[in-house]
Protein: Trafficking protein particle complex 10
Amino acid sequence: MEAHEEKPIIYTMENKPIVTCAGDQSLFTSLYTSLAQQLPKEPMEWRRSYGRAPKMIHLEANFVQFKEELLPKDGNKALLTFPFLHIYWTDCCDTEVYKASVKEDMQRWQNILRLHSSVDWLIVVVESDAKKKNKTNILPRTSIVDKIRNDFCNKQSDRCVVLSDPLKESSRSQESWSSFLTKLRTLLLMSFTKNLGRFEDDMRTLREKRTEPGWSFCDYFMVQEELAFVFEMLQQFEDALVQYDELDALFTQYVLNFGAGDGANWLGSFCAPVRSWNGLLLRRPIDMEKRELIQRGEASLLDLRSYLFSRQCTLLIFLQRPWEVTLRALELLHNCVQELRLLEVSVVPGALDCWVFLSCLEVLHRIEGCCDRSQLEANCSHTVGLWTYATEKLKSLGYLCGLVAENGPTSEDLNRTVDLLAGLGTERPETVNSMQSPYKKLKEALSSVEAFEKHYLELSHAAVEMYRAIGRMRSARLVGKSLAEFYMRKGDPERAEGFLEESLRLYVAEGWSLQVTHTRKQMAECQKLLRQTDDYLQTSALLAGDANLNQEERTHFCQEILSFASQPPGPSDQTVALSMAAFAQLRQLQFSPPGAVVHVGAALQLELRVRCLMPVAVHVGQLAATLHFSLEQGGARGRAGSSQRRPGQGPQGQGDGVVLFPQGSPLSGAGCSLTPALELYEMQDRSPSDSSLNSAGVVCKNVHLLLRRHDSNASLDTPTAGVLPAAVAVDDGAQMLRARDVTLQPGDNSILFTAPTGEPGSYTLRQLCGSVGRVQFVQSHIYPVVQYEVYSQEPQLTIEPLSDNLLAGIPQRVKFTIATGHYSIKKGDALQLSNTDSMPILHSSRCSATILSSTGGQLPSPHEHMGERALSIQSSEKVTSISLPPTPPYHTLEFQLEVLCHIPPAPLKLDSERLTNGEVRHRSKSRSHADSAMIHIDQKVSIDCPWSIYSTLISLTFYVPFKAKHTLLSAGRRKYIQVCLQNVSDSNFHLADPVLVERQPTTTVELLSLNAKRQQLVCSQQSLFCLWEMRWAKDLPPCLQCEFSASFVPISALDPPAAFKTYRYEFQLDRVSTLYSVKAEICPASGDKHCRTGTLCGLEVSITRQAEPSETEGEEEESTEIEGLKTTKLMYEVVDNSSNWAVCGKSSGVVSMPVAPSATHRVQMEVMPLFAGHLPFPNIKVFKYLPHSAAQVIQPDTDSCLENDNLSLLDKGLDDQGDTASIRSRGSVHSVGSGEQQREQQRGLPMPRLEPFSPGQVFNWTQGRQVLVLPATDDHVMEVNVT
Structure:
């Protein structure tokens, strides 16, 4: 609009509640000014019925002279002319005057009010000091006020109010005014609330009669609008708006019911044909013309809706909610169009478009009149809908009146235009002086083609700019598409192309299928007019494969392409390249063989399945796929352990040589999403020695596509964005896959290619190109990456056991596998194996080899059995020669041999032993043996192969199936040797003839076998115990060297019978004679027969020398000679590991033992049982006590020798440390080996030390003995320890 245009005036309601004034009019006139100013100053709380929230209102009043004509007659329920309060004014202060005239006049006033049932009245007596001074006959006892109250206010004394000196500025006057105004506001509000509530009840009753015949919506409309006027009069605009909204909702519901077949009779007046369509009128607070039409029942649907919305608009502006006006206006305009259709109202074509156009601009002008420019720009999101709707209706009028046609409007169009302008009527007085009024704009736009184009483009561009400013790009593109249609109708495709491109790009990106199809059809028409051949062919290809079009339309666009392709090319014509995605979709690719890894010269076929999107069969002259050759994966490195992901093994594959291609959105022209998919590959780094995995990672192959810059003006999905693939020049000498003269039928098709495999390397499919005459359909990028490898493999020899573990001592079969690779095994070629004494190779004359032929794929892959050939094996002292049968390249030769690893008699290192650098030994195909601790034997075999000048060193690991350990047992002076043989393998064995012999036989020691069975079954993880008793004639030798042997055979080898093998175990026993015996006795307290808990008992320990030490043992024990008696020192210690006893006093000490047989030393101490029951004796330990001068003796290894009565060391383990601490806590003294002595040793001071006796040198008679302990007699809780 123009800046100098006058803004419309906002009118307000001038009506106020009527208050009549009777009595002295001159007196009221003198007080009117002050009364009118003071009354609305203080707010009043208005409490309404039906639980509605109270509100604070400012009351105003229209004071008029009392007349009987103002009082409501019977049946008149109008609120605007209803007098809510009647006031009688008097300043009479003389009794005679009161009796003569005032009383009579007041009586007449009361009778009139009583006659009209009006009970809302007030008598105001104005007192003045000046008047009182001029009167001498004033009664001293009674006043005029009292007489008036007695005469008229007997029961309502508050209806008479005194106003003292109202024209003075005294405090008494102010107080009188305040009291009077409060009373006036209260009475006025009470009357207003009472009469308004009665009016609402009457209105509600009238509304409930709406189902009765003869009920009129127009009559009810006037009644509820009266209520709205009252609320507006009180400036309660929100409540007034609610009344109009209720009328709107009620009328809308009746219209909807009419459309559903339930029509009201009064709706017939609104079904009259529309004669005027001059739009909304929002520049008046009340459109009295349309209100009178509604009151007379002559209004049309548009008249009612226009008047109702104009009142709502006025109230919303009063409420300062102008943006809600725009939202309601847009909803109103759409609803009116639908309501006219539901009521089947006859409307002249184009009349509704005129009415909507004028209404949109009227609302916009009204909003512009009450808001400044900054507010309009900030809230354009509320007004842009009206701009767009007005644009659409103006466009519709232009099409209807022929203003968009290339040849201009016809005579019929001109007549239609004249009829439409006639229905607008004359311009309203409010907009006559405005140069940009909606009336003038519409009239000017329909006057000529140029004017229409000017106004239409102005509105369209304004709408587009607003949509872009608020970020609603879809709506902006939609308006732009409408502009493109306008330009196409005007014959200007160049200006339409840009808008169509933007719309198409948006629809494709967001997946609007039907919109994409419709826009592409428009695009094709535009490109054809602009003679853009390449773009038109690409769009035609997309439309030919669009399922949203019917068969006829698709065939038309397909024939456009085929017609162009069949034309003979000119000298300057080039091949047109189109996207393959518009022509066909790649479904899957299958390799044969499935591994897609073949050796040089092998046959490899690729079956490509494509889905042709064309509606008719298309003959393709050549379908070719370009190959990229690389040596990265092929060549000499093309092995079975390649780290590259194979086709058919990724997320798009099925693991059987099938590559599935992802199906892009059917809307996109490139067959893929806007962003290329990730091409991820797994990379593995394996050790060259044992193929163990060192590291793994993921690499992206198409980083250059993902991280490239995207053009904001181009899209991969629109064929006109300048991203079409260039024509592919097919070179006959290049590495390509070709299929000629292929006819693609609509739907799925299968094409077979033969891949070149002449050179080793990696072949990757880059592009796919189908040639149809002068047109090439190109798939510029194939995803996922499809490749196959051609390798030239070196010969490989592998040796692997047929079982999980190779067992030593029994024949084991190993498998030899030779992958010939590119080498051809000729007659006379042989493998030369070095022989070792510990692992001979067993062979028979019937040994044969199997030749397998692979299907061309990389190992492991399916093999075909080619037959068996006999092997010639010759052995000498140092070499075993295996003559190989002739085998062609890329075949597999397999044969088996038996080997035997001898078990050495000496103990070997365990499998868990670490190497010198601290690393654990790793072997392929080995299992954990932490529990069984299997002993392993590594055997090295050197093999000379005919295809290599270097020897191959093969390591085979054998595991000893048994583990043996020995134990020396004592029973007094008798000695026993126990050997435990454990089967630590997974096989079951038969053991026979266990024998224990002395390797240096002596006549003094005899080993007597106590084993009853000669042969026994030993299952996996089971143990066999063998026992021998030692008998001797004189003295035991200081050292025994023994050898245990047993024959074994696996259970599986008994059928047919096999020879038993011998297992040997050698060990040595030192210091086997018993030197000391220990006995202990526990005696209860005196007077008790049994020990009791909590009572001290006596413990007597006897240490007896059994025999004199031998020369070796004597050297270990340091003896002293005192007065001719030779003695040795021992240390004893009494501990209780199970905490059953408390040792009181000294629990350890050093004794001197004479070096003589049967020498005994007794020690007595006190112990206290802590629990009742049969308690085991405390542990008694004896050690060698060596003074600081004694040379330290290093105890030799006893070869896992165990003793059933072995004594624990003080510093041996965690359990014993806990026991020692327990002893200290009970007050015992630890005299030797304490922490202080250890600290002294750390300082380098000479300290005595302890050494344990060897197993069997000390025999404890109390081992396993128990003593009965009774509970204390005064205990109420019994604790019994059962062991």
About this structure: The chain has a mean pLDDT of 80. The first helix runs from residue 25 to 38. The longest strand covers residues 618-630.
